[in-house]
């Protein structure tokens, strides 16, 4: 069992390493960094540095070595977060927000990937917040979340400047269990792939769970 677990972690780390390498190569191919900053909402500090907001915190990308760090922090940025930041920056098309919210199944390939998305994001979301939805409001403030007008309780978190993600809860009652959903602006595929949406949403949920006050 231990060997199997170690092998699984090793494969996952290797996968992250390859994805990060490819993401850095994609950024290195961009000839007009200032224009890509405009498309993504990143701040162009100079030819060797840009700043991008991710989950309510400023991350610095140094060029040309393409290293990513959190401003005023010694905490090492995880490879998963680095990959999401680079994927968002390189893919961003500056497509205006539509104001129309869509569910995961409406994303490209979303129907096929939905079972995994439900397991990794929606299920833990409802499990940890369904019976105490007021905790969602409290924990979401650390990520810059603001209240939305859906379900019984909902918040919108701007994962990136052009990627709002709306978390919706229905409290349930004596007959119905709590339920929830996660919604996206219809333009999200112009900023992230469907796979990245899964990883990003899962990341948000577990950051919120981590901030639930212990009793």
- What Rg is obtained from the alpha carbons, in whole angstroms? 18 Å
What can be said about the biggest beta sheet? 5 strands, antiparallel
Q: What structural category do the secondary elements indicate?
A: alpha+beta
The tally of strands reads: 9
Distance between the termini: 33 Å
Q: What is the molecular shape?
A: globular
Contiguous helical run count: 6
Number of self-contained structural domains: 2
Mean pLDDT, rounded to whole units?
92
The spatial strand order of the largest sheet comes to 5-9-8-7-6
H and E order: HHEEEEHEHHEEEEH
Strand content: 15-25%
Helix content: 40-55%
Structure description:
It is a single chain. The two termini are 33 Å apart. Helix content is 43%, strand content 22%. It folds into two domains: 2-91, no CATH class; 101-210, no CATH class. The strands form two sheets. A five-stranded antiparallel β-sheet has the order 5-9-8-7-6. The chain has a four-stranded antiparallel β-sheet with strand order 1-2-3-4, with helices on one face. The protein contains six helices and nine strands, in the order ααββββαβααββββα. Residues 4-8 have low confidence and may be disordered. The chain is an alpha+beta fold and 215 residues long. A hairpin with a 5-residue loop joins β6 (146-147) and β7 (153-160).
Q: How would you sum up this structure in a few lines?
A:
The protein has 215 residues and is α+β, with helices and mostly antiparallel strands.
């Amino acid at each position: 069992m231990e060997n199997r677990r170690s092998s699984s972690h090793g494969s996952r780390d290797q996968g992250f390493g390859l994805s990060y390498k490819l993401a850095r190569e994609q950024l290195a191919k961009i000839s007009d960094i200032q224009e890509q900053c405009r498309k993504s909402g990143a701040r162009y500090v100079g030819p060797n540095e840009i700043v991008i907001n991710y989950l309510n915190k400023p991350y610095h990308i140094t060029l040309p070595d393409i290293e990513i760090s959190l401003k005023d922090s010694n905490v090492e940025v995880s490879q998963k977060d680095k990959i999401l930041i680079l994927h968002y920056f390189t893919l961003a098309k500056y497509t205006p927000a539509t104001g129309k919210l869509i569910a995961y199944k409406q994303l490209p390939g979303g129907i096929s990937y939905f079972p995994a998305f439900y397991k990794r994001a929606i299920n833990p979301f409802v499990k940890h917040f369904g019976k105490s939805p007021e905790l969602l409001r409290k924990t979401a403030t650390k990520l810059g979340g603001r209240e939305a007008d859906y379900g019984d309780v909902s918040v919108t978190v701007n994962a990136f400047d052009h990627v709002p993600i709306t978390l919706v809860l229905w409290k349930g009652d004596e007959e119905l269990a709590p339920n929830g959903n996660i919604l996206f602006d219809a333009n999200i595929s112009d900023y992230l792939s469907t796979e990245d949406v899964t990883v990003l949403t899962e990341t948000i949920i577990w950051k919120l769970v981590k901030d639930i006050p212990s009793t």
